[in-house]
Specification:
The complex is a heterodimer of chains A (about 110) and B (about 120). With about 110 residues, chain A is mainly β. Chain A has no helices and eleven strands. In chain A, strands 2, 4, 5, 6, 9, 10 and 11 form a seven-stranded mixed beta sheet that branches. Chain A has a four-stranded antiparallel beta sheet with strand order 1-3-8-7, with no helix packed on it. In chain B, the strands form two sheets. In chain B, strands 2-10-9-4-5-6 form a six-stranded mixed beta sheet, with no helix packed on it. In chain B, strand 7 and strand 8 form a beta hairpin. Chain B is globular. Classes of the chains: A mainly beta (about 110), B mainly beta (about 120).
Chain lengths: ~110, ~120
């Protein structure tokens, strides 16, 4: 099973700040990585797929990069609705796995 | 508009069974794989099962393999999760998720979830 480790667990930032979230895989997942955002009480929402492609309707302030074992999600300038939990997920190998999540909270 | 509507969640005793349903609309169901993901209270996401659009190839997470069975009925635009031998640790919100298909990425649509609570 591929283990995804997200860091940091919590990111305390202010509106307008740049957020950098990391996801590291225990073995290569090539570019088969997605990022999701989950707001309290809501289902997750797909942000990024195949490591760097924004899903439909996702604002340009969200960007993804990386391949192999190291991936990054960047939110260039935090908006109020961006304070949420973010999960990465690999789709390279069965079983599909998620990272433990990074909470972006208001400082 | 794409919609995924889960149903069937309930309070059930440990060792019991439950069948979840997910009714899909707004897209050509036959063209998409379908996924179940769960989330225990206050915890992260756990992938449970995957069923392909053709040949009904299925895959399961280690924690549910042998106890849960996923199926689909393309005539009813629905996917199902039969859960047997339920344990306390199966308590979670269960989400139905659209998988890959027709050029769209996997995971682009999620249902609102249905709560399964297992009591011992």
């Amino acid at each position: 099973e591929i283990v995804l480790t997200q860091s940091p667990a919590t990111l305390s930032l202010s509106r307008g700040d740049r957020a950098t979230l990391s996801c590291r895989a225990s073995q290569s997942v090539r570019s088969n990585l997605a990022w999701y955002q989950q707001r309290p009480g809501q289902a997750p929402r797909l942000l990024i797929y195949d490591a760097s492609y924004r899903a439909t309707g996702i604002p340009a302030r969200f960007s993804g990069s990386g391949s192999g074992t190291d991936f990054t999600l960047i939110i260039s300038s935090l908006e109020p609705e961006d304070f949420a939990v973010y999960f990465c997920q690999q789709r390279s190998n069965w079983p599909l796995t998620f990272g433990g999540g990074t909470k972006v909270e208001l400082k | 508009e794409v919609q995924l509507l889960e149903s069937g969640g309930d309070l059930v005793q440990s060792g019991g069974s439950l069948r979840l349903s997910c009714a899909a609309s707004g897209f050509n169901f036959n063209d998409y794989d379908m996924i179940w993901v769960r989330q225990a209270p206050g915890k992260g996401l756990e992938w449970i099962s995957y069923i392909r659009r053709v040949y009904n190839d299925v895959y399961y997470g280690d924690s549910v393999r042998g106890r849960f069975t996923v199926s689909r009925d393309n005539t009813k635009n629905s996917v199902y999760l039969q859960m047997n031998g339920l344990r306390d640790e199966d308590t979670a919100v269960y989400y139905c998720v659209r998988g890959g298909g027709d050029g769209n990425p996997s995971g682009d649509y999620w249902g609102q979830g249905t709560l399964v609570a297992v009591s011992s």
